[in-house]
């Protein structure tokens, strides 16, 4: 009786399939007019586009039911969808680069203007106040400002050594000018230089300038460099090509609904997010170091304010120089006595003039310029922008889905789920490469991170170390010997437990041995169960009848029958 029941069930199922394939009005081919219109609007020829749906066994990406797409159409649309995503990524990248460039140019121009204004004030005020003490040494002052600019722009200079050399050269030249009646050979000037630290000929000005300038210039240039590095990372990541698996998934997401004859069905939200999370898995791994960099940049702006802040110090270099020359003139007699005591009596210059003839006893008192509020405004805008872009890399899939992929506003029976119109059931994957191990839409090899992006993660780390060092007032050596280029950044590589769980999608559809499918069933019991469930001869007769019924249908019956589901 049980076998007879099975036989009747098979016969009924066969009859239903035949009826669906032959006579059901729902199985009739639908018009492709809407698809033709959309396809032609994209610039493709309509010569080979079918007027009505055709059998889709030739499709390689889209579902193989009835379709409005030929193989050539599928290939054209696949290339077009990849180009559209690449364009969207480049547009997003350019917009972010433009934002960073705007902030960089504004703040960079302000700091350079401060230094230029300081030098201009020096050039205007020093000749009248110091006479020959300045005019005969204009090159030394000009060289100092040139080196300060180079340092600010990132040149490989040691600022403290640069300042020390400037003060040493200036002391030699000014001491000779203050004592034209004396012969001061090189060995005597060398002795003077060795005693300079103890004699403090320029008072506290050199020490104050060294301490404040180092902190101020390091903070200013590291912030501007951070903006530059961030922009450069965005530019280089935008050049990373899309993987072939991503291109296929994007085609299925965007245009397979057209091929399926439902061009009005928009991608389900979670479906779109899974596709782009898989496509941009490596990019999402930038997130942790990107946030670290931006946080460090916001923090370093604290060093722009106050008496020792970047704005006050960079714009006031000339004031320390004036203070130094004033101190040298005021302490000239005491200094001379101490130098003679330490280095001996120099010979008199028979052709030299008296000390009072060449010396200008002028003193320069300069007022500090009050802040215009320009830097405060620039920094406030920059900090707001940096906070806005902190989650750029992990929000990119959702942003593209919302703005570029014509995503459906809700996941319901009317959105495209990759196969038909209907709800999308799989869960949304997490962010980053390691979380794509079970992505249902894009096959991602989590053991092979993109090396270009790993290199950019390392650049972000290095720049963050610069900023952290600058916050402490240190001009750090930027290369961290403990870091290598292997991409040890966040999300890099493959966690052991994740790699152990990785299962190939191709193998997941293979048949499962009976002893594995039924937990607790021994291999021997499994063999017994298999033998017990072997069909009787009558069962083969019923299968033969079922085959005859199928043979009576058209060869494309199976394909047509799939349309009975309402796809």
UniProtKB/TrEMBL annotation:
It comes from the Eukaryota. It is found in: Cell membrane; Secreted, Extracellular space. Residues 1-23 form the signal peptide. Coiled coil: none annotated. The keyword Ribosomal protein does not apply. Residues 344-363, 478-532 are annotated as: Disordered. It is a lipid-anchor; GPI-anchor. InterPro entries: Glypican, Glypican_CS. PROSITE patterns: GLYPICAN (PS01207), PROKAR_LIPOPROTEIN (PS51257). It holds the Pfam family Glypican. Keywords: Cell membrane, Disulfide bond, Glycoprotein, GPI-anchor, Heparan sulfate, Lipoprotein, Membrane, Proteoglycan, Secreted, Signal. Belongs to the glypican family. Cell surface proteoglycan. This is Glypican-1. It comes from Rattus norvegicus (Rat). The gene is Gpc1.
